[in-house]
Design brief:
Blueprint (H helix, E strand, L loop, with lengths): L2 E9 L8 E7 L4 E5 L8 H7 L3 H4 L10 H10 L3 E5 L2 H9 L8 E3 H8 L10 H7 L11 H23 L3 H12 L18 H7 L1 H14 L4 H11 L2
Parallel strand pairs: 1-4, 4-5
Antiparallel strand pairs: 1-2, 2-3
Helix pairs in contact: 6-7, 7-8, 9-10, 10-11
């Protein structure tokens, strides 16, 4: 029987060089949060988001050296486990750097985008969706455990929507969420930059060079923004 594990990481940043400094998870049995000393310094930009400072982790051990590591690795890599995260490719990359590779995952960001075919939602970050969907929960934003609590509620909303719209049971709904999560999202509208609000299919006709430049930036930057890389390659016919 599948076991759902909701998890989140807080990190030193969001590029390829960055690593985790906090991890939290919640399953049917318990909930856990751990703080660790990362291999690189936590920059002020990251601390401004999650409020974890270098002073707070000075006396901690690195995640891989902690007593928590083996337990979390065994739990996450269990063949029956399905890990759930918001923007899962990023969190999965962070724990992969630590030597943890779950076999199955669900990305609530991709599932949320799947339901928003007309892209009416302005943003898809977890806290924006929390307040947009009026998820009532006492949870601190950008704290790993607080985010996990919001994530669990968002997951339940999305699962219920699949069950109702597609007339399937809970097990098939979860399998559908896994299928959606395993494929990058195809985006249709710019939500940033000089073409904010414009359809990508229109921009490629008038300024193909911009899409070429943006794709190069995404690939050269860190290569972890799978949805935008997939989208740009799609519209550019690559």
């Amino acid at each position: 029987m599948s076991k759902i594990i909701f998890f989140d990481t807080e990190t030193t940043g969001n590029t390829e060089k960055d690593v985790l400094c906090q991890i939290a998870y919640k399953n049917e049995e318990n909930q856990f949060v751990g703080l660790y000393k990362p291999r690189i310094k936590i920059p002020p930009e990251a601390s401004a988001v999650h409020h974890i400072t270098n002073k707070m982790v000075a006396g901690k051990v690195p995640f891989q050296d902690s007593s928590d590591f083996a337990k979390i690795k065994k739990l996450f890599e269990n063949k029956d486990s399905i890990v759930v995260a918001h923007n899962a490719p990023f969190d999965l990359l962070m724990i992969k750097k630590e030597g943890i590779e779950p076999k199955r995952f669900i990305c609530t960001l991709r599932v949320a985008r799947y339901f928003d075919k007309e892209e009416k939602i302005d943003r898809y970050n977890l806290q924006y969706l929390r307040y947009l969907l009026e998820i009532e929960i006492d949870a601190t934003a950008h704290d790993a455990l607080g985010d996990v609590m919001v994530l669990e509620q968002l997951f339940e909303r999305l699962k219920k929507k699949i069950i109702e719209q597609e007339g399937v049971d809970e097990e098939k709904a979860i399998q559908k969420m896994i299928e959606i999560s395993n494929h990058p999202s195809l985006l249709h509208t710019f939500k940033f930059g000089k073409y904010n609000g414009k359809r990508i299919e229109e921009v490629v006709k008038t300024d193909r060079g911009y899409l070429e430049w943006l794709l190069k930036q995404k690939l050269d930057g860190d290569g972890i923004d799978e949805d935008w890389i997939y989208t740009l390659q799609y519209y550019l016919g690559k």
